[in-house]
Amino acid sequence: MTRATTVRAVLAAAVLLVSVLITLTMSPRLGLDLQGGTRLVLQAKDSATTKADRESTDRTLEVLRQRIDSLGVTEPTLTRSGEDRIIVELPDVQDPRKAAEVIGRTAQLSFHAVQGPGTEQEKEKGKGTGLTLPDEQGRLLALGPARLTGAGVKDAGASFDAQQGAGWTVALDFHKGAGRDWTRLTGEAACHPAQDDRRRVAIVLDDQVISSPQVAPSIGCNVGLPSGSTQITGSFGADEARDLALLIKGGALPVPIEIVEQRTVGPTLGAAAIDASARAALIGAAATALFIAFVYRLFGALAAVALAAYAVISYAALVALGVTLTLPGLAGFVLAIGMAVDANVLVFERAREEYAERPGRSLGSAMTAGFRGAWSAVADSNVTTLIAAGLLFFLGSGPVKGFGVTLAIGVLASMFSALVIARALTEIASRSRFVSDYRGVNGIARPGRVRTWLTRRDPQLFRSSRRWLLISTALIAVAVLGIVVRGVNLGVEFTGGRLVEYSTSRPVDVETARTALAGAGFDDAEVTTAGAGDLSVRTGDLSNDEEHALRAALAEEGGHTTKVRDELIGPSLGDELRRNALIALAIAVLVQLGYLAVRFRWTFALASVAALVHDVIILVGAFAWLGRTVDGIFLAALLTVIGYSVNDSVVVFDRVRELWAKARRVPVATVANRAVLQTVPRTVNTGMGALFILAALAVLGGDSLADFALALLIGICVGTYSSVLTAVPVALVLEKSSKAPPPARKRAPRRTSGGGAKRRDPLDNGARV
């Protein structure tokens, strides 16, 4: 074994060992669409006194955090998104009415005199007009009526007092009238002895004591604290002081909030999605592994081992990085398994070519040449997929972001799997005399049936390239006709409104459900079937109370009615998401064009983008003809198809560039024809690997993944066609008007083969050596 092979083997073993340990000791973080629960997106609004900016949104978030904790929700998640949005995730909360009621309530901050220790009886019955609440240590305090509210607080801030040695303190500043009330309140408290509970002042937010400081001994009776110099001291840490300041200030200056998005997923739907995706992954991966082993024999089996290692590594990376695994992300993880074979197929096909061109060379040198020759195409194709994943993350929302992260991790893990793990395994195997001598065992020394058939027939695909353009134009015309005639069925994510799916204990047909809802006052409700006997109801603006009444109307016909899924999108957010989707597509096209123009010729770049646009139009048109919903999940599939389409085009044009540089006097049409014939085996074998996975997702993935898998199935088939029979003809047409010279040939170090055979012309049909 060479030193490089040893390094790869040790690195592969180390990464795989760490990945196995992470897989066995850590659990994935599941999104709400997999574990069930409610997700809310809140939009902060400007008030008469406060602008909805980053600072005011942070204050609002801290107030909301305290309120949600009072719901008893297990591990709620609150994060700020952008300048003025807050994302709230509540696992296991199936009825968003209670959560929305608590979240939407105006902040109630008040200041009370402490009348002394309280009792449980006083807490239950109340005492006059006051309250009995536990303080920060859990001791009950009897509080008097509110003396001033949070509206009187002008500002609150945390600071570190190094001179007085008081540590972290919270300074309060009141408006003029409220400042006099504060002075009077603290002056009355100062009339009681030190350490007496009655010398304390309780600050209460939403019926919870957030602080109950004692008036300092230096303050005289009925003198009180002036507004501008009030400080709350205690054993605060930096975070505690800042949180207390945010709570006090947030209660004083509440920012109005509006629920612009609400999604609820039942736990059974999430569990079913996980089970279905797991079955699809196992069956699809097994079919892919068997296929790759059948085509490439021993080396294909080694690639299947590397594929299994890839699955472990990418899963461990998702868990270790704390990535929230959503339903689209889970589908992306399954899809990436099928796409991970692409780099291996590229290498194996290049190794077959090297072996065929120089039969006397050793199997090990052919594999090394295969890895070296495939590197450019592997790098470029994976970069284009990473671009698509980046666009999904930065321009998508919610679960689509998770899909982008999963796809990016999958691409990086697949490169490591192919270029380190698979290479180490194949290099070790290629040095075995048994593997080298028996061509039927290694799978590389024989050219393969597809390549043999193409070499023998040598079809001239581009003798009349315009006919392929006419076919592509006809396909686009059919797709556009579907968009115009049938229209695009935009989901509520892009139009705004509410979509709720229900499961009933008794079967209810669509017409009966429509009649029942119309009788209950929901005349505009659109009712359709949602698979497995479930009903899908789509309406415009629908409050949580109205949704409860709608469910009750269905229950009269269907018996016990359970909400399976609930999506509420505000009209402003729907417009924004629709606009962002168009921006994402435009940026995807421009970024891919720029990258390909730098890496290749401008003619190749425009041709690849033309094929990309061709694929997008046909996929949207297909969904229009089929009446399928176009939503955020479809957008994730569409951007993935863009990456896949450009991936295929890159492989073809990389070979065109290589062959043309070696035969600069040969017509570009002849070069392109030979490049396509050489890359067809790779295209077919890679496509088959992805199709196995997608077919398993479409059949076994359930209704929630059916449209996603269908979009990718259509996209991959169309993308495979367009990368050869649309992109190449467009490039040939553009090259006729291009004055740029053929690409320059790369200088390679001079090599000699053990058998002394000459390297044949790259455009030779193989009839002579």
UniProtKB/TrEMBL annotation:
The chain crosses the membrane at residues 276-296, 303-323, 329-348, 369-396, 402-425, 468-488, 581-598, 605-626, 632-653, 684-702, 708-734. Residues 58-115 form the Protein translocase subunit SecDF P1 domain. Signal peptide: none annotated. Keywords: Cell membrane, Membrane, Protein transport, Translocation, Transmembrane, Transmembrane helix, Transport. Residues 138-255 form the SecDF P1 head subdomain domain. It comes from the Bacteria. Residues 739-769 are annotated as: Disordered. It is a multi-pass membrane protein. It is found in: Cell membrane. Residues 257-426, 553-736 form the Protein export membrane protein SecD/SecF C-terminal domain. Its main location: membrane. It holds the Pfam family SecDF_P1_head. Forms a complex with SecF. Part of the essential Sec protein translocation apparatus which comprises SecA, SecYEG and auxiliary proteins SecDF. Other proteins may also be involved. Belongs to the SecD/SecF family. SecD subfamily. Part of the Sec protein translocase complex. Interacts with the SecYEG preprotein conducting channel. SecDF uses the proton motive force (PMF) to complete protein translocation after the ATP-dependent function of SecA. This is Multifunctional fusion protein. It comes from Streptomyces yanii. The gene is secD.
